[in-house]
Amino acid sequence: MGSRGSIWSRAAAVAAATPDTRNRYVDFLRALSICAVVVGHWLIAAPYVAGGELTLGNMLEHQEWTRLLTWVFQVMPVFFIVGGYSNGVSWNAARRDGRPYSEWLRGRLQRLVGPVLPLLALWVILGVIAGRLGMSPEMVAAGSQMALIPIWFLAVYVGVVVVVPLTYSAWERYGLTSVAVLALAVVIDDVLFFAADLRAVGWLNYAFIWVAAHQLGYAWRDGYLSGPKLGPAWAIAGALLMVALVTLGPYPVSMVSVPGQEVSNTLPPKLPMLTLAVVQIGLLLSIEAPMRRWLNGAAPWTATVLVNGMIMTVFLWHLTASTLVIASAIWLGDIGLTVEPGSGAWWAARPLWLGLYAVGLVLFALAFMRFERGGGARTVAAWRQVAGAALVCAGLALLALHGIGGDGPLGLRLWVLLLPFAGAALAGVNPLGAAPARAAG
User: Fold this and answer.
1) What is residue 136's three-state secondary structure?
2) Can you tell me whether residue 421 is helix, strand or coil?
3) For a 10 Å CB count at each end of the chain, is N or C smaller?
4) Torsions phi, psi of 49, nearest 5?
5) Residue 374: Cβ-neighbour burial (10 angstroms; 0-12, 13-18, 19+)
6) Whole-model pTM?
7) pLDDT digits (tens, 9 = 90+) for 101-118
């Protein structure tokens, strides 16, 4: 109780010092989107033991109706839009105050890259232990890949943050046209993907779609999206287009990848993901005014500050927590894992499993939240920051796709694992995080 009270008290102190000019709804949507991702990942996980064999199943395979739930739980677009709003505000302020790009980028790289380093270090240790216990590199790769899925987002988002000066300049000069051009690029990319069977070009949509979502954050900041009329209009237009794409076009219904399905809306992302971004932000911004009034209350705003103070830790560690809970259940004799996914008993047990996952996540969050505080980064040249960020992004993307297991020394893909650490060192990121003197808000 003392520790929890202390954390809440620190968050309350930060909340009380919030200036009236801050848009608290931005922070609330950031927290809400990450919490939705965590719960969504935990819900679709369907590990199952039959005949002594473990299958790491997915509810999207077992019950097709659950694919519609991804329209609610796939909220990464919201996070990129919120990022666009926040980065637009902070970059504009940096320019106004005469602060250089390297100074602006330094804190962001520390907060984004710092928290992922202890996660990777732990998985190196777990991978070595698993290999010593006789687990094959393929099994290590599968288990670690399941836990490291969240880092794909970080690989993309860090890249988007690095190019903020360019994207913000494009927004200032071209406004919504900058979004329209990216949307057109997405359409062309998808046509080449499907009609010309140029599957490799589909990966370009990671840049086109997520930068476009980030541009929508600039649009929100400048008043193009929010309001009782504008918000619903954007949401209706996006919903009509999204429904048309998944019913009349070649796109699947699910907004996350379904194992065994040839086409995915996320790997690589496709046009329905951009329409989903428009739907979600239109709906959320249609209620911005009452939500901002509600967030003036001490309790909801303190809770928002508390979650945002550990948000990257929660996001990065939530699948590691659930993976280790599942591993513990296997060690205890497959307890709870022999219930067939999708059955009534399986759904009835979900609250218990979610509770166990949450307990594990809280322990990780309390242990590692200090790594995402913004201080502690060294000031280095901008070219080093950009080059370091590129190495980090490359390493995280490869680890998200294939995990840590491989045919290298110790049964690990050591050269891939070294990329994020080398990139962090080059960019001046402090691997030990900032001093825990104050709470992040």
Assistant:
1) coil
2) helix
3) N
4) -110, 120
5) middle
6) 0.90
7) 999 999 899 989 989 999
